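Technical note accompanying the year-one report. For the benefit of new consortium partners, we illustrate the data format agreed upon in the data management plan: each record pairs a sequence with a structure-token string. No post-processing was applied to the example shown here.
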Amino acid sequence: MTFDNLCLQSLKPSEQHIISITNSIPSYFIGEGFVTLTEQIGMDFVLVVPTLNHNLLSVAQRTLTL
């Protein structure tokens, strides 16, 4: 999740608009997109939550294998 939609290569609307973060208070997000972390690593479905103070990354979600 990020608070800054300018770091995304693309921003598209999302069907869902509410997410619960660690404090269990609903937070609203404006869409999702793709962000490049390094030349070899990028992430899709990054949510834009304007009320965040910092970017958040879930290691468990990032390392989940299907």
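Partners are asked to follow this layout when depositing records. Residues 29 and 46 are 10 Å apart (CA to CA).
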